[in-house]
Amino acid sequence: MKLATTLGDFRRYCDTYEERVKHICEAGFRYLDLDMYTPATGDALLISDDWKENAKKLKSYAENFGATFIQ
Fold first, then answer.
1. Could you report the per-residue pLDDT of 18-40, keeping only the tens digit for each?
2. Strand partners, 5
3. Which of 4, 16, 47, 62 has its CA at a distance of 20 to 30 angstroms from the CA of residue 24?
């Protein structure tokens, strides 16, 4: 079983998806769920024309922490 958490759990504490990934990984999680319901404040990851490229960058960022998006 893979223990994961969603980036949405940190939306009240972090302004960007990168901050969310960092804090979640520092808490020990290695499997992430990309919360696509509410964009991060000031973060155009999912609402920009470059959303695919932005998602790839976020994936690479998470991989630097040894984390993988599983959903």
1. 999 999 999 999 999 988 766 55
2. 32
3. 47
- Which amino acid is located at 36 in the chain? M
Range with lowest mean pLDDT among 6-15, 16-25, 32-41, 54-63 = 32-41
CA dihedral 65, 67, 68, 71 (to 10 degrees): -120
Which residue type sits at 48?
A: S
Beta-sheet pairing, 31-33 with 68-69: parallel
Is the confidence at residue 3, as pLDDT, over 70?
yes
What contacts 71, CB < 8 A, 6 or more positions away? Answer: 4, 33, 34
Record the tokens describing residue 48, joined without a space: 């920009």
